[in-house]
Amino acid sequence: MHKLRHLLTPLDLSVPELDRLLSLAGEIASDPAAWQSACAGKKLATLFYEPSTRTRLSFEAAMLNLGGSVLGFSSAGSSSVSKGETVADTIRIVSCYADICAMRHPLEGAPWVASRFSRIPVVNAGDGGHQHPTQTLADLLTILRRLGRLDHLTVGFCGDLKYGRTVHSLIAALSRYEGNRFVCISPEELRLPAAQRAAAGDAVVETADLEAVLPQLDLLYMTRIQQERFTDPAEYQRLRGSYILTRKKLSAAKETMPVLHPLPRVDEIDPDVDDDPRAAYFEQAQNGVYARMALILTLLGLAPDPLDAKEEKEPLSLPGLHCGDPRCITGSAERPVPLFVRAADGSLRCWYCGRPVTE
Ligand code: NCD
User: Fold this and answer.
1) Are 281 and 160 in contact (CB under 8 A)?
2) Which residues line ligand 1 (CB under 6 A)?
């Protein structure tokens, strides 16, 4: 029997599983039509509690390309959440209607809640400022197709590294490949959070100066300042426009250095960069469809290579302890059972949002 698996963070896939999935995505890219009936009769539910066009359409395109169908909602206002329904109840119901679901939610950890009550694979399509594993699949496929490898790379991440969930997921994924170094370029206020930094160990250097580090990078990952996550609008106004990549600045970079961006961009990449052969962001969006096709096939047990049998580690229930961070689903009216995990360094983390919790 095919075992139920979810994708909440890129770390839910082992490195060999990830490599097999990316190789399947590459095969799909070379002949998408060969897969046009692979998911005939299957249904994908897109549960989007937070606005998104690109990611939602990318999931829908992926399922339609596979011959399956899609259903769902595109804002919390058009779902029963406006009547007060919990994520736990919504996913119990959706499990009766669909074979797989993709969930985007403004609260960190919401897809973790869903995974505990779901009978179908749950894919995290972005939870608050936390994780965005399918963007990572698109990013990795783009890096692989451009540079031919995922190891021994000096990767520059530039912009909002604090709230940018795509950065958190991609650093976690790339940290598992040998010899990668991460140059984190951001204003002081938008640095990588401690939990994400710890995952990458000593491979991280931090700077505020893009131009100074540009020549050493094998790859540059630009990001948007995440306006919607700021509690203080004045701070956003002060930090917006911190980094703008122009053709002129790019002249100092390696000829082979792809520029990635999860999109949408605001002003952090000047449109005059779009014609440069290093601009890889539109092809990254195309790769996102192939990567999601490979993921859907894999989680439904329809891929040529099945996932490995995985030992699930039960999260810890510790009476009296509560994360309760207002950005975490545990701090909302949903009030899921508090659960924790112990990180490699022995510290305790909220199982839902990954934040350190003091015992
Ligand atoms: C990203 C996201 O939603 O986190 N976009 C995306 O998935 N296409 C990046 C962003 O919104 O800046």
Assistant:
1) no
2) 54-55, 126, 132, 135, 165-166, 224, 262-263
